[in-house]
Amino acid sequence: MFKPIVFMFIFTKLFFSANSKTHPADIKALNALKNGVDPRSITPGSCLSSWDFTIDPCDNIFTDHFTCGLRCDRVISGLVRVTEITIDPVGYSGSLTSVPWDHLRYLNTLDISDNSFSGLVPNEFSNLTRLRRLGLSGNSFAGEIPSVLGSLHQLEELYLDNNRLHGAIPSSFNNLTKLKRLEIQRNCISGEFPDLGSLKNLYFIDVSDNNISGGVPSTLPLSLVELSMRNNKLNGNIPHDIDKVRFLQVLDLSHNMFAGTVPSVLFRHPSLEQLTLSYNEFSSLQVPAVDITLNSNLIALDLSYNKLRGLLPIFMASMPKLTALSLERNEFTGMIPAQYAVKAAVAGNDNTSSFERLLLGGNYLVGPIPGPLLGLKPGSADVSLADNCLYRCPDAFFFCRGRDQKSAVDCKSFGPTIP
């Protein structure tokens, strides 16, 4: 009885191999990937629950046996190779270290995001030389980012965010000349941000919520459109030639340790639309020429929770597209400029936008409420003047609510110019 069973097994295996469309190396790698997943995390109806290696994977995609997770394409050899692995985010757990990644030579997309994989990011990923997209977001990978990822010269998108990675961002990333998008936010990354200035295609960087130190790199990719370095340990100066990054639209450096002066180049940048510098230690603003601010594209500007002093900068009211301005929780004094009140109270036109948000609370502003603001109705604009030194700002006005005005003692102790 034993020999016929063995013969039948061998015959079945040979028949399967002879008629298989999928390259045997790819099948081996896929099988190892599934075997590396904790069976308890493979739920009924999930992609991996349908992977049945008694039949050919690429010949049975979208059937009951391989319902999802794969894409295959025919190559010159005549065999079909796996070109994409994108598994569903259902909480798979396990490790990737036992997978022979060098077998998947035609893989251009690997995305296992939003699961519970753990362990190290495999160095063997460096063998995926055709990879264009690597998505490891939202897992529990730990350890350092392998420097060998810098050898993936075809890589266009790299998602390492929301893991437990530590150490520095490898300088080898400067070799990823086709990289367009880099996301490493919400890890434990430390050290200084590397020089990626030679990357001509990189348009999006998010390294927020880490422990990155140093300053904003003096050389940034000129193709950059969005840069978020929020909630790190950055300090130093913002590069005065950041206007050379002429396509930059979004810059978020909030929740860091920047101090000194906010350079005027940020207010006259040719394409910048959203600038967030809140929760830093800035103490002054470099005022640009008024005629230059008339060409500003800024729509939203947040300088709240700094240590900015002096009078409210009038030039901000002349920015034609600015609709959201937050200067709250600083140390501004003086009266509220009439230009601010008019921009908040008067409807915009084709050339100039009105303030939809004007947050000035938590400063040391004095004097009466400007007349144009008195006619504002709740819901017309988000305006806050609470916690200042204004003369009569009762709760009858919605923009005075939230906190009372400061006491006369607090106002006078701040500066002798406050009556």
Automatic annotation (TrEMBL):
Signal peptide: 1-20
GO-annotated cellular components: membrane
Primary localisation category: membrane
UniProt superkingdom: Eukaryota
Keyword Signal in annotation: yes
Membrane topology: Single-pass type I membrane protein
Pfam families attached to this UniProt entry: LRR_14, LRRNT_2
Compartmental location: Membrane
Keywords, alphabetical: Glycoprotein, Leucine-rich repeat, Membrane, Repeat, Signal, Transmembrane, Transmembrane helix
Domain Disease resistance R13L4/SHOC-2-like LRR: 101-332
Domain Leucine-rich repeat-containing N-terminal plant-type: start-end pairs: 24-58
SUPFAM superfamilies noted in UniProt: L domain-like
UniProt family annotation: Belongs to the RLP family.
Protein name per the record: Leucine-rich repeat-containing N-terminal plant-type domain-containing protein
